[in-house]
Every structure is written in C-alpha cells, then in structure tokens.
Specification:
With 85 residues, the protein is an alpha+beta fold. 36% of the residues lie in helices and 9% in strands. It has helices spanning 2-7, 9-12, 26-35, 59-69; strands spanning 18-21, 51-54. It has a two-stranded parallel ribbon. It is flat, with a radius of gyration of 13 Å.
Amino acid sequence: ILHDLRNDNKFKSLTKVAWVSCTDEPLWANECLEKFLTFPGGEPLKLCADSSQIFKANKQVHFRKLKEQYPTIEFQDMLFFDNEY
C-alpha cells in the first residue's frame, strides 16, 4: 500500500504520507525506517513518506507541525494510526 501511495499516479499527487512518532529514540526509529522495505527488494519505508515527525512530543504538537507543513490539508482530512489512546 505504501509503495502504491508513493508511486501510483492516481495517488501520489493527492496523498501525503508522514511518519510520526513520539519516541525518545528517534535515531533508532529512523534506522528502522531505512532498513525495513515496502516488500522484498522494494524501497525503504523511509522513502515512502513525504514528511517525518519523529521526536518526543504529544499528538497535538505533531498534528500542528504537519498542518504547518501542509496548510492546505485540513485536520479532518488527516488519517492517523496510533498504538496508544
């Protein structure tokens, strides 16, 4: 899916992907994004995102940073997956 969002013409001009994490281990998180591939022989996950917000902060800070980076994308149009509540 991530590969298609980045490379398929019907998605890539309309979709922005961002890595967001409140980890206190940003170097390790970035290393993982460089090592994990979209599929065997595919591109690293790091290359599938238009933005990376990997630093210690809360969700509100991350959302505000994304809104600053992409002012034409409304909060209601952002899809956010999270492993925390």
